[in-house]
Amino acid sequence: MQEGSIVSQYQTEIPEPRVECIEFRIHVGCCRRCRRRVQGRHPRQTSDAIGSAASQLGPRALALATQLNKGLGLPYGKTTAVLEEAFGLRVSRGGLCQALQRVANKAEPTYQALVTQVRASPSVTPDETGWRVGGQLWWMWVFSTSQVSVYAIQPGRGFEQAAMVLGADFAGFLVRDGWSVYRQFLQALHQTCLAHLLRRCREMILVAGKGEAVFPRTVQAILQDALQLRDRREEGQISERGMAVARGRLEARLDRSLQRSYRSPRNRRLANHLVRERDALFTFLNCPGLEATNWRAEQAIRPMVVTRKVWGGNRTTQGARTQGILVSILQTCRQQLRCASSLLQTLICSSQPKVLDLTAPIR
Predict the structure, then answer these.
(1) Would you list the domain boundaries of the chain?
(2) Which residues have CB under 8 Å from 223's CB, separation 6+?
(3) 26 secondary structure, DSSP code
(4) Kindly report the CA angle at 358 between 113 and 303, in degrees rounded to 5?
(5) With 90 as the cut, is the pLDDT of residue 120 above it?
(6) Strand 37-39 relative to strand 28-30: parallel, antiparallel, unpaired?
(7) Max alpha carbon distance in the chain (Å)?
(8) What is the pLDDT of residue 41?
(9) 155: Cβ contacts below 8 Å, ≥ 6 apart
């Protein structure tokens, strides 16, 4: 055999992981005047506990467990299995659950700061889906803006629960679906989701009997023309005056179709719904930049739907609180293109709960 040439091949591999066991030599003493007990603290410590609770998980391990369980939806059992299989780190499910609760306690002020940002936002998109807490039906709420997302697991689906996060006096734009609770925010400017209405029209057309499809087709055409009109404005193809004239024609077409009486129960239900939502159908045409659908909240709540299918929900109200706090921080980090792991480690290693500004420019 004669050697001809030497070529290169590349392989990307993960180095063999290993667990570090770090010992902190903590100086303990007392004040000479007040005799108060004091002890030192290293920046890498995650807790001041000593004695029988002296063995703690490190910040990187806790940050990874938070992302696996809350960010990716792995149950506690599978999260512990990943930690043991990949790193040789053995931790019980109960111990991991308590550790994540401590992480949530330190993240509570940052979570409340996110709630404040949502309430002050000019535009918010809410949504909700069913959740389980202790086997009982609760609701997972999400309030999403272009910068942050806040989740809250509440025992109900009413105005009281929505107002606990958004505030009863919210006065910005509310881009939402047709759930009647959202209409109770009287100071807000409303935009109903056109995607929901278009989907409803398509479904009605598929099952329509003789003569029933005329009304949903009319509504579908009006809504699609409204979206095309928005696109023309964004592309600079129509003047402000032309926009106002076209918008008035769309509203007149819709009003004429709603003034008619319909024999079909399905058509009557759609007409009654459109009458209730009439003032919120074309808000986006009056306000450049406003979304016409609640896609932002639906995208934010979709991972929670997957998590619910995997392990159902939370066993306790404390677990539901932990869930809401940590997924809010993880989702906001995704929106801000921030490294959630380093931010979680900062929170975990802080001696006291602190507020981190997740929307501040990244250095």
Answers:
(1) 194-286
(2) 194, 197, 198, 201, 281
(3) -
(4) 90
(5) yes
(6) antiparallel
(7) 92
(8) 87
(9) 133, 136, 138, 139, 161
